[in-house]
């Protein structure tokens, strides 16, 4: 750390001790920023501290106010984007979300698959779920589970065989 860096840090530290409470109080007056006043005040001094070089500050309160206002405007812009995104999601959600009946059918199907795979090793079950439910390819499954592609193929054969056997026995019992 150079002498300039230490001098700059000491100068910002002095400004912090001298003006932090004033800046915090003035930020509390901005609408919708009083809950973030501490964060904005701290970020203001952090930006001042991260300046690439020591700058001569003739009017510290004016500089601190300018930096803080920019941070507040960034916060407001970020909130506007978030609000717009949430509104877009709400508008499209009815089209994207399945009906309660569809959810119940999916839940029943998953329970039936779980019952059919009961007793198989976890990697066999995981392989089947990753393939059939999540739509992963065999190479993707192999990478995710840390197994060979051949093992993925064997596990899928084993799981499908179990499902077919269970399905056949259920069909015979119902007849």
How is this structure best described in words?
The protein has 175 residues and is mainly alpha-helical. It folds into two domains: 94 residues, no CATH class; 75 residues, Arc Repressor Mutant, subunit A, CATH 1.10.10. It has seven helices and no strands. Helix 2 crosses helix 3 and helix 5 packs across helix 7. The longest helix is centred in the middle third of the chain and has 37 residues.
Please report the number of helical segments: 7
Shape estimate: elongated
What characterizes the major β-sheet? none
Q: Quick one: how many beta strands?
A: 0
**Share of β-strand residues:** under 5%
Span between N and C termini? Answer: 84 Å
Helical coverage, percent range? over 70%
Total number of distinct structural domains: 2
Poorly predicted tracts of residues: none
Average predicted local confidence, pLDDT: 81
Which structural class best describes the helix and strand composition? Answer: mainly alpha
Radius of gyration: 30 Å
N-to-C series of helices and strands: HHHHHHH
Keywords:
175 residues, mainly alpha, elongated, Tscrpt_reg_LuxR_C, RNA_pol_sigma70_r4_t2, transcription regulation, RNA_pol_sigma-70_dom
What's this, in brief?
InterPro entries: RNA_pol_sigma-70-like, RNA_pol_sigma-70_dom, RNA_pol_sigma70_r2, RNA_pol_sigma70_r4_t2, RNA_pol_sigma_r2, RNA_pol_sigma_r3/r4-like, Tscrpt_reg_LuxR_C, WH-like_DNA-bd_sf. 79% of the residues lie in helices and 0% in strands.
């Amino acid at each position: 750390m150079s002498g300039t860096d230490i001098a700059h840090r000491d100068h910002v530290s002095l400004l912090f001790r001298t003006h932090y409470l004033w800046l915090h109080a003035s930020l509390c007056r901005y609408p919708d920023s009083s809950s973030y006043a501490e964060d904005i005040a701290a970020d203001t001094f952090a930006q001042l501290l991260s300046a690439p070089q020591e700058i001569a500050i003739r009017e510290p309160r004016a500089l601190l106010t300018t930096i803080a206002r920019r941070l507040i405007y960034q916060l407001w812009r970020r909130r506007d984007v978030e609000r717009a995104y949430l509104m877009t999601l709400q508008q499209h959600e009815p089209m994207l979300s399945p009906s309660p009946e569809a959810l119940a059918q999916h839940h029943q199907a998953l329970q039936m698959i779980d019952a059919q795979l009961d007793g198989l090793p976890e990697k066999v079950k995981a392989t089947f779920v990753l393939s059939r439910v999540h739509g992963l390819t065999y190479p993707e499954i192999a990478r995710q589970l840390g197994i060979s592609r051949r093992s993925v193929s064997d596990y899928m054969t084993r799981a499908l065989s179990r499902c077919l056997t269970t399905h056949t026995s259920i069909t015979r019992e119902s007849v």
